[in-house]
Write a structure and sequence with these properties.
There is one protein chain. The protein has helices at about 5-25, 30-50, 65-75, 80-85, 90-105, 115-125, 130-140, 145-170, 175-220, 225-235, 240-255, 255-265, 280-295, 300-305, 305-330, 335-365. It has about 375 residues and is mostly helical. It has a domain at about 5-140: Ferritin (Up-down Bundle). The longest helix is centred in the middle third of the chain and has 47 residues, at about 175-220. The radius of gyration is 26 Å and the shape is flat. The protein starts with 5 loop residues before the first helix and ends with a helix.
């Protein structure tokens, strides 16, 4: 695809993915909003096509990236597709703005507000149940792009770090048994470190939120007048007239549990749903994602040794790096070959440096 059509491709893909979400959305009112978003994105694509003097028949088909996301949705659920789509808002916006600049066209607010438009459409539709809105917000924060990105980056960390370690030891010309042992030790140590770090991160975040919530509950009991004033100010900040805000605050204070929920969400910015995530699940996930990447450069040393093992390890790692680079394009929308080979170059460069250092150290031993 030529550079001239790249911005149009971005819009075609977004339209395709929103239509896909609409097709598989159980809530018909939400599905209607997704269809509206699909039409908005296709409208952008057609406008750019016209600005380039092209016919509608020149409109590109959905890209391989979009079709891959469709397959991911079929396997893991379409929440992942929505997450990736929302997570790439900046990429969508950048492509649209670049095309408008090239064509000297006036910018539109919808160019840079894909997620905001979607959220506004959902909230404006009174037929959409509150549970569906909560489900959308949860998808936006916790799944899709973030989850897939974590998987890709976790595998990348394991592959690059252990590949470099294995090459460094191999460069020192020690026995293949030592290289294998070092690779396995590095894999296990790295995976445990990642798991522990993830566990501490999730656990400490949960504990901090719990402490803040306990303090807020204590303040609600000790100083209810002050907390009522805070609730009124929260409503006033949302544009509600002062008198009405104070009336609403007084009504909410009649139910302390409801008042605490509001203060926790609005004042502390804590979402209790997010606190339910298991620290152990996060640790297990990090552990196995790191292992998945770290085992690749080690495998050849199970079956062979010497230069052949080093060569096979480098080849296997290069393929893994290319796959990771290609997977990253799910979020960036960049060319698969460019992103894949860039990852290979960086990974091989890191391994070459450690191999060279190993050679120097080995020569001194």
């Amino acid at each position: 695809m030529s550079h001239d059509l790249s911005s149009i491709q971005i819009e075609v893909d977004a339209s395709f993915l929103y239509a896909l979400l609409a097709e598989h959305e159980e809530d018909e009112n939400v599905a209607k909003v997704f269809r509206e978003m699909s039409e908005i994105e296709m409208g952008h694509a057609l406008a750019f096509l016209k600005s380039k003097g092209l016919e509608q028949s020149d409109l590109p088909q959905p890209s391989g990236r979009a079709k891959t996301l469709k397959k991911i949705g079929k396997i893991f659920g379409y929440d992942y597709v929505l997450g990736v789509l929302l997570d790439t808002e900046k990429g969508l916006s950048a492509g649209v703005l670049r095309a408008r600049k090239e064509q000297q066209l006036k910018n539109s607010i919808s160019d840079t507000a894909h997620v905001s438009i979607l959220r506004n459409l959902l909230h404006a539709n009174k037929k959409i149940a509150g549970s569906s809105l909560v489900r959308f917000e949860k998808r936006h924060r916790n799944v899709g792009g973030n989850a897939i990105r974590a998987a890709v980056l976790g595998g990348n960390d394991g592959l690059v770090s252990n590949f470099s370690l294995v090459m460094g030891v191999a460069g020192a010309s020690v026995g293949s048994g030592s290289v294998l042992l070092t690779g396995l030790a590095g894999m296990l140590a790295g995976a445990l470190s990642m798991a522990l770090g993830e566990w501490i991160s999730v656990k400490s975040s949960q504990e901090l939120s719990e402490n803040q919530m306990a303090l807020e509950a204590e303040e609600l009991e000790i100083n209810p007048e002050g907390e009522e004033q805070e609730i009124a100010l929260i409503f006033m900040a949302k544009g509600i007239p002062e008198e009405q805000a104070r009336t609403m605050a007084a009504q909410i204070m009649e139910n302390k549990e409801q008042a605490l929920d509001l203060l926790v969400k609005e004042e502390l910015g804590i979402n209790e749903e997010e606190m339910k995530g298991s620290a152990m699940e996060a640790a297990y996930s990090s552990f196995f994602l790191f292992i998945t990447g770290a085992i690749i450069p080690v495998i050849p040393f199970f079956f062979t040794s010497g230069f052949l093992a080093i060569s096979l390890s480098a080849c296997a790692s290069a393929l893994g790096l290319f796959g990771i680079g290609a997977a990253i394009t799910l979020f960036t929308g960049k060319n698969v070959w460019y992103s894949g080979f860039r990852q290979v170059v960086f990974g091989l460069a890191a391994a070459a440096i450690t191999f060279g250092i190993g050679k120097l150290i080995g020569a001194q031993l």
